[in-house]
């Protein structure tokens, strides 16, 4: 090999290098499996947490993250191996698409490659492996869809299912002991969206202090700002104008403006002109007849005074998200020019009551009885910011899954049930297929079965025995059975209430098999030379 390598003329230029055939494939397998193994121990309700600690100077301890969320761990990893990057990418996509199953997808892809590697060692060509995997994937997907059930959106069963799904998602998280409490909270929040899938309308406010149990869902909308001094603190039947406009009158907002004057009087003149302009703007705003004025930008004393004098309550410097949410909740339009007061009725937002409230030590503004009541607020309390951040991530997962479920409505049993059933389907199929592909289909089944195996192992249970018992139960026709992770036995999931959203499983299956296929196809890794900067 070496001699050939030396004799071959160098094809690639400068710093570019190439890894070929076996070496390239091995590198990819090793990278991907290493990444999957890293998150493996966090899988399932008894999975362990990881501490992520930034390196380098200037990174204080306060930046550490304690988490159990696959996507969060993988996202913060800094890897060079290209296959490892692919796995990180699919986990991220899973997080964005459905919000949960981020560990599952990476682990499944890793296990597929582990099985794939064995096949390659048996001298089965990657193309046969891929062809087999494709058959297996379709069979698994079909079985997964067949075992899923659908409920009517307004039925009590569906509501119960949502709570169960939220509980399953939360059970692998820090707040597992409070999961019933948070499951209800998340379900109520999502149902308030009335079918809209915009997660932005659920605002999460994190306030250190108190305990996790002090967290609650506020039926109004809370803005983390204060009402400007000198205005009314309690407004009933509010008409709200939401704006994004400059209200700082002494700044001339054009870059490069230079004004030369030769006396103080002239300066005063300019100031007076600016003031006049501001007054004009305020007059225009007043024509809309709002009772509350929310602006994204700062408001200076003079316009503030004018507005307050007109009896309007002013809220300034509402950041962009806050402002958009206020607009969504109250049904207001966001204005930056004020030339259509005749449309005021459509433009202004409405709510029954605006008042200042105290949460912990902080003053905030609460909007109750909003016209478009779509937005709501979850106030999270907890002993430290690390806990709050992890609770936030967990709640986010649950909310995403719930929104997906409301859209899709199909559910499957959790506790490894769906994976075991998919594996069984693949094995049945493997018996019928002729040729080498059958090995690949069997390998697919094995990889799927690794998910419940790992969940068991992470709980400290005897996985070999449990998985065998699991198989037997399914064979007997107990198709709702799964892992009971409190007792370390096989139990009825419908009694334990462990349910999952079909979309999460579907997406995990598709993404993992796609990524594994992609990595399996690799037979060459070319490192491109960095592009040099052109000299100017
Ligand atoms: P992911 O990031 O992939 O969602 P998790 O750590 O949340 O990983 O683990 C999810 C797996 O744990 C799913 O396969 C699910 O069926 C299983 N699981 C969750 N809760 C339970 C439970 N209470 N009993 C048994 N299995 C559970
Ligand atoms: Mg999960």
Summarize the structure in words.
The protein has helices spanning 2-7, 21-40, 70-75, 82-97, 102-121, 126-147, 156-171, 179-192, 264-286, 301-309, 320-330, 344-347, 385-408, 417-432, 437-458, 463-475, 493-496, 502-520, and strands at 17-20, 50-52, 65-67, 149-150, 202-208, 216-218, 221-223, 234-243, 292-295, 313-315, 334-335, 349-359, 362-370, 376-382, 410-413, 481-484, 489-492, 499-501, 524-527. With 536 residues, it is of the alpha+beta class. Helix 10 (301-309) links the parallel strand 9 (292-295) and strand 10. The chain is globular, with a radius of gyration of 30 Å. The two termini are 44 Å apart. The relative contact order is 0.18. The model is unreliable at 1-5 (pLDDT under 50). Bound molecules: adenosine-5'-diphosphate and magnesium ion. The site of adenosine-5'-diphosphate has 23 residues, from helix 5, helix 7 and helix 15.
Q: TL;DR?
A:
It is found in: Cytoplasm. The chain is of the alpha+beta class.
Taken from the alpha-carbon principal axes, the silhouette is globular
Which range best describes the helical content: under 10%, 10-25%, 25-40%, 40-55%, 55-70% or over 70%?
40-55%
Instruction: Quote the average pLDDT.
Output: 83
Give a short account of the largest sheet: 7 strands, mixed
Alpha carbon gap, first and last residue: 44 Å
Instruction: Give the count of helical stretches.
Output: 18
The unreliable regions are 1-5
> Helix- and strand-based class?
alpha+beta
- List the ions, cofactors and other small molecules found in this model: adenosine-5'-diphosphate, magnesium ion
Q: Report Rg.
A: 30 Å
Task: Report the β-strand fraction as a percent range.
Answer: 15-25%
Secondary structure tally: strands: 19
Pfam families: Cpn60_TCP1
Protein name: CCT-beta
GO cellular component, one term: chaperonin-containing T-complex
Function: Molecular chaperone; assists the folding of proteins upon ATP hydrolysis. Known to play a role, in vitro, in the folding of actin and tubulin.
